[in-house]
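Bug report

Summary: structure tokens for 3,4-dihydroxy-2-butanone 4-phosphate synthase differ between web form and batch submission.
Environment: batch mode, default settings.
Steps: 1) Submit the sequence below via batch. 2) Compare with the web form result.

Sequence submitted:
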Amino acid sequence: MSNRIGRGPSSNASKKPAGQPKSSPSYLERVERAIADIRDGRMIILVDDEDRENEGDLCMAAEKVTPEAVNFMAKEGRGLICLTLEEDRIKRLNLPMMVTDNESPFQTGFTVSIEAARGVTTGISAHDRAHTILTAVAPEARAEDLVRPGHIFPLRARTGGVLVRTGQTEGSVDLARLAGLEPAGVICEIMNDDGTMARMKDLERFGETHDMVIVSIADLIRYRLERERLVRRVAEDELEVAGVGTFRSIAYQSSGDPRTHIALVQGDVRGLEPVLVRMHGACGMGDVFGSAACECGVNLRRSLARIAEEGRGALVYLQQEGRAGAQALKCARMAPEVEEAMAKKSAGPFRDYGLGAQILADLGIRRLRLLSNNPKKLVGLEGYGLEVVDRLPIEVAEGRRSVAGTGRVAAHRVANSRGTSGKTAKKAARKDRS
């Protein structure tokens, strides 16, 4: 096991002959170096996207962790040190999720915190945390080997990795697997000396100082897509949508996932001509029951109507893991005004859009005009060979605006029942996702 953190300031990998301009490595060079470094027990910097969290995480293979590595993360990274695990290991270790209804903007999969049952003292030292991590990822690890709570925070990685969920949790597990190691990682956000989050310029300086390669989620997506594909077509038929028209209905499933996603298509969507596209997260209350407290059903029907008007486009209907109950409650209790404020802080259905992006690629779509009221950029989209050339808002009918007014009254009543003014409730809603 290597005790080195990065390749070291004397590494030939970072040296250039005098006078030669510094060239940017290709995505393939970045990913392959990252895989090699992960395999050797070194750290790399894993970044998401400036329109998502806009952060970089120190990342290494869990089975290679040392007290020195934990100390480096705590001292130089300064963020929360987390252990990323596959769902199967989470189940084997009997780790319940931290909450039953995950309301975090990006659906971060925290379980309860853990500590090794033996071989630790206070649990917080670099030695103790490294020991806890190694205990949890040992080949024969059992639930009895850990106690709860503790000083290590496991994160559940979605099956399918970055091709399903575009997060650093999945990215770290993917990198460990690609390196031929136990699919588990250790990650820690990188912060500046003053406590602010390190952004790309800061991360580049950090990487150069410690000779760490920077890899993005988009790099990993592209690397994996060139070697594997998760989605497959399971059924295809014509579907008559009442009051709208006839669509080609294509059902998709993915490896290890029983959920079925649907693509509704009109016209020939293949080629480079931009295609009207709606990525729609399933909402039973709005889509099926027509709840007046959310705009999900209205957005669905108006999107289909827009596609039918143009005669060319696609709507991808995504069944989102663990969102049915939360979505139903949200639509039942939240005013549209509060929901809109929350949407500005949340990625909404786009956080888990990886499968949807693969579906678009399977349909032959390359450039899209996205129907969405959400200003968030889709993380790592270029990794799928897709480009958003335009973003079109879904107009809300005047009748819905009057419903919004009713919703605001309801929100005011809920706020007052908790001893909070409606104005304060709106502020709380805005802060809730910060």
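Above is the batch result. After comparison, the two runs are identical; trailing whitespace caused the diff. The first helix runs from residue 27 to 39. The domain at 231-431 is CATH 3.40.50.10990 (Rossmann fold).
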